[in-house]
Amino acid sequence: MIPACDTEEARNGQKHERNFYTQPEFDALYHRNPQLVSRTPVQRSAAMARKVCQKLRVLYCGERSYDGPCGLLLSLLHGLFPVAAIMCQYESKNWLANDLITGFTVGVMHVPQGMAYAMLATLPPVYGLYCSMCAPLFYFLLGTSRHLSLGTMAVVSLLVGGCLDRNVPQISPFRPSLYCSVFHLVVLGPATMSGLTNLTSTAAKEDVDVAARVVMAAALAMIVGLIQLAMGILRLGFLTQLLSQPMLSGFILGSSIHVGMSQLFVVFGLHIKKSTGLYNVPMNFYRICSNLPESNWVTFGLALACMMVLYTFQLWVNPPLTKRIRVPIPIELLIIVFGGITSYYLKLGTEYNVRVVGTVPTGFPEPSIPNISLAGSLIGDAFVIALIAYSLSYSLASFYASKEGYTVDPNQELVAYGMTNVASSFFQTYPLTASISRTALQVTMGSKTQLTGVVSSLVVLMVVLFAGPLFYDVPNVRFAFVRLVDSPILSCSATAVYSQSTIRIKACCLAAIILVALRNVFNQIAEIKRLWRYSIWDFASWAVTLVATVFLDVIYGLIIGITFSVLTVFIRAQLSNTLVLGRFDKTEVFKPVDSYADCVEVPKVKVIRYEGDLFYAGAERFAASVIRASGFDPRPIICCKKKLVCTINEAEAILKSVHSQQDLQLSSHPLHGNRSYQVQYFFFPHLLVDIQLGDGTCSPEDLDEPVGGCHSRCCPCRTTKRTQANLKLEALKRKQTALCHLSTLLDKVPLNHLILDCSAWNFIDFVGVNALKMVGICCCHR
């Protein structure tokens, strides 16, 4: 019987006792299902197969799937297109107005962010609009989140830009290594049609470099989508658990520093080469500081003015305004428009050399097949981008889903992101992810379903098709839809030419939008105190990832962050606490004795709590820490006890053999005229006694007590009897001495019982079981 601890009766001063049970006794007492008690291997294998099939059915068809092949197919399609269930429950009277207003507002927000983040990806601004236009449409069909705004995002755009910077010079269209035909848009700026036939000029080479980036970005989007789709089909959504929240926060902050550093070149108007690869942030910071005298202060003033206006509206104007009219002022779009108008009338581009990003052509691109042959050089970056994009998007979706009272399926989200990237890549987009600011705006404005994304996509489509003539400062800029045929001699032919007005965007305006958008990311620095207070390991993961990302590179920072996060799991297993528990007087409540002065240990009893999981990484530490916490090492005592017990057993065996003549074997052989007997004991073959006997002649002084009529001391039977008496006496002495030593040894042991508190153990593996057995064997010293 043992007392029940830490129960309501114990807290009230009452004691309740319960019995000890073995597992068979417990099963018999409470009538365990006999089918689970004894099953043949075939039955166990069949049961396991049924469980696997049931698990697969739940994973792919849902918990409430229909029976039969048709029912399973219907359930599969129902899970693949969750929009059907949402639209069936759509309340037009209550939700439609919110979705339309929110969709229009988010669509307006897509325009400046899409163009700005496309610049981070080293692509023309229009491709950011294509991303913002395609992503919400495809996600509407497959996504399970009702508030996620899919499109462009700073961190993923930065990763895409780094990938293109590394790979475009290696796979240039001027090299004959790429033999295929691709279609894409090339923004030619003020080039004339005659320039299309001569691509050897510097401007034409820059256009071809842009074309190569567009082709590679579309191929990257396709590969990222295929990776995410494969992960979704295989139900590998749990892989994002490798990216802990502190590590991800440090990575995003470090990536944001990369983004901010890249935009400082634009803000100061510096036309110098940027450093890429390892240590690029410190190197770029040094280059900016050393070239500050060459800055374009007009560009800096315009960017600073834009940032001040953006910050003022976001912090003090829009928050109170949205409480009244629910629609915030699209200040980012207004900054772009008024920045272009101001630069046109003040002639900032021609007289003050203010940098222009490029033109935004109006019109919709024709679909083209991405060049999947580039997968060999892009697969590494694609896997990293796929994992980061999914982690950011799913964490955002799950956060707002729990806040709004519904759930999202991680595996279906993987399928949705993958299909969205694959389908969008046919329209020259780059990898997509969710935006924190746009998603938060959707939730704040009361969006109800994914219909908001469809509306925002239509708004961006209208901007792409018809906004050119409304905002322009160069009225007759042409762009061409060009077919590039890669061969040793590159040829180019124009398939369609449009003469439409386009928007010329000032780079400093987009840089100001990006820098102000990073404000919320840099606010995460305030989490340092909370991370330090709650977990030093989370703080270390955050700090290591941040430092590696900033001072090395984005990709290396992610790899080091994941490695360190996984390593901390094993470090924690090696540093798990081992506490000695005691109880308070007249209670059954056990607490650590080091934490409470009134908590004392039970005499001759040691209660130990190991606060860690018992698996291979910490099994050795578990055994050592339990022995150390018990106050003594039982292993030397066990060794001495084994020797003493062995001695006692040998003595008892000798005593038994003395009483039984059948346990002795005598073998004689002549030795110098005398007979020699060797006594060997069956119980211990190694124990041999040599007995030298005479030749059979006796003298009167050799006489002793007669044995079987023989009166000679030299008689073999007489000598054997005396030898037995000596062995008996020696065995008795050895046994008594060993028993005395054993009693003294056991009296020195300070414990009678060792109790392990296993409440903190989550799981135990094979190595842990062996460690637990070893501790049990070491402690069984009695």
UniProtKB/TrEMBL annotation:
InterPro entries: SLC26A/SulP_dom, SLC26A/SulP_fam, STAS_dom, STAS_dom_sf. Residues 595-772 form the STAS domain. GO terms for cellular component: membrane. It is a multi-pass membrane protein. It is found in: Membrane. It comes from the Eukaryota. One of its GO terms (biological process) is transmembrane transport. Keywords: Membrane, Transmembrane, Transmembrane helix. The chain crosses the membrane at residues 117-141, 147-164, 176-196, 216-238, 250-272, 297-317, 329-346, 372-393, 451-472, 503-522, 543-571. Its main location: membrane. This is STAS domain-containing protein.
